[in-house]
Specification:
Rossmann fold, UDP-galactose 4-epimerase, domain 1, 2 domains, two-stranded parallel ribbon, 9 helices, 34% helix, 16% strand
């Protein structure tokens, strides 16, 4: 049994990660402010990572899974509060790649500002750079769009809501923009592989090897919900983010290094079905945006 520290632990990725390793038989600690219900089977360390003080004094962790760091300061505060650091895995982001680089993005390319993601991407990159300097054994994971059970961000839940209401779905243009996804369980599986195999490479793009276009993704979401789909194309005079949950930005990650260690990933439809089951039982936990209101007021015929 390993002692594993998970930062966060109450929402989407961090909660899924915490519960996954509890099921694996590990002794899981979660670090959060205790403002939300905690996962079952964990030990809570109540605290704000910006004001840790001696909160972690006396603890010994075999693994740190840092899911909720967004800035260099977030990482620095945690590293300084920890004692001996054995294994550390940081969930970074594909937003660290400038949109001007050739695609698919590879781990060897130099990170930098991305006009779409702005400070989110540069802050993640600064956090990575701090870890590389101060915790050289750390692994840095750069996912695309994460999805699956416990997804409270209004992406696939938005499509599920439209499907359940029997609404047509409004897509930007012809829906040809491609997107890349990664299931949260596959993220956990890959973390396990890193901890077991300890590869020399320290930076990994992670994600499904194949991308899907908007039209295909929406069809799969409706299929996962067991509903019929009618697609309506929206003219480009409308800002995409006013009615659709993804930026007008197509990119792809090279995940060949991940595939060498973990050849198979969960099929997208299977993962969306799992996401829909969770969504159906937790609709009150979704962080909604005003896409439907915008559509009904500005687009709907």
């Amino acid at each position: 049994m390993r002692n594993i520290l998970v930062t966060g632990g109450t929402v989407f990725v961090s909660r899924f990660v915490a519960e996954y390793f509890v099921r694996r038989g590990d002794n899981v600690f979660v670090l959060n402010r205790n403002t939300r219900p905690q996962p079952e089977g964990v030990t809570l360390i109540e605290g704000d990572r910006s004001q840790l003080g001696d909160k972690l004094k006396g603890y010994s962790f075999d693994v740190v899974l840092d899911v909720t760091a967004y800035t260099k300061t977030d990482v620095e505060n945690l590293v300084n509060a920890l004692g001996e650091i054995k294994d550390y895995i940081f969930i970074s982001s594909s937003a660290v790649y400038p949109e001007t680089l050739p695609q698919p993005f590879t781990e060897e390319q130099e990170g930098g500002p991305n006009a779409v993601w702005g400070a989110y991407g540069t802050n993640k990159l600064e956090a990575e750079e701090y870890l590389r300097e101060h915790v050289p054994q750390a692994y840095l994971l750069r996912p695309p769009y994460l999805y699956g059970p416990m997804q409270n961000v209004y992406r696939d839940p938005f499509v599920f809501e439209c499907a359940d209401a029997g609404r047509p779905f409004y897509i930007p243009g012809e829906g040809s923009m491609k997107m890349q996804f990664f299931h949260v369980e596959d993220l956990c599986r890959f973390i396990e592989i890193l901890l077991e195999k300890k590869p020399e490479n320290r930076v990994f793009n992670v994600g499904n090897p194949e991308s899907v276009d908007i039209k295909t993704w929406v069809k799969l979401c409706y299929e996962a919900a067991g509903k019929n789909l009618k697609l309506i194309s929206v003219d480009t005079i409308h800002q995409q983010r006013s009615f659709f949950p993804f930026h007008d930005y197509e990119y792809a990650l090279d995940v060949s290094k991940q595939q060498a260690l973990m050849p198979e990933t969960k099929p997208l439809l299977e993962g969306l079905k799992e996401a829909y089951v969770w969504y159906s039982a937790h609709t009150d936990e979704i962080k909604r945006k005003s896409y439907i209101e915008y559509i009904d007021s500005n687009i709907k015929m």
